[in-house]
């Protein structure tokens, strides 16, 4: 099993975000701004859904990887550390999903 983690990916994205945009897709996305990166995240989410409902395990794996990568880029641009997301997940999973959802304030 690989020792690669989402934290590793976050570190790679942070490093590549400062590269020359002509040499790095990550730097190009960061330079284009949050709107472009978020649109790309949305595209990858749709592609992941399509792969899931098509029962295409190989494509689902590839699209999920793309989705996670683009999410990390969007978080980077937004100044949200992955640890903040993990902390929120930990908070939410400390109780049942139904109880947690009922406790959320309407937005």
List the helices and strands and how they pair.
Elements: H1 6-16, H2 25-32, H3 34-53, H4 57-78, H5 82-93, H6 97-103
Helix pairs in contact: 1-4, 3-4
Description of the molecule:
The chain is mainly α and about 110 residues long. It has helices at about 5-15, 25-30, 35-55, 55-80, 80-95, 95-105. The longest helix is centred in the middle third of the chain and has 22 residues, at about 55-80. The protein is globular, with a radius of gyration of 16 Å. The model has no long low-confidence stretch (mean pLDDT about 95).
List keywords for this structure.
107 residues, mainly alpha, 6 helices, 75% helix, 0% strand, globular
Short description:
By secondary structure, the chain is mostly helical. It has helices spanning 6-16, 25-32, 34-53, 57-78, 82-93, 97-103.
Average pLDDT value? 94
Major sheet: none
Query: Which structural class is indicated by helix and strand composition?
Result: mainly alpha
Task: Point out poorly predicted stretches.
Answer: none
The amount of helix comes to over 70%
Number of distinct helices: 6
- 3D shape: globular
Number of strands: 0
Radius of gyration: 16 Å
Order of helices and strands: HHHHHH
Beta strand %: under 5%
Cα(first) to Cα(last) distance is 41 Å
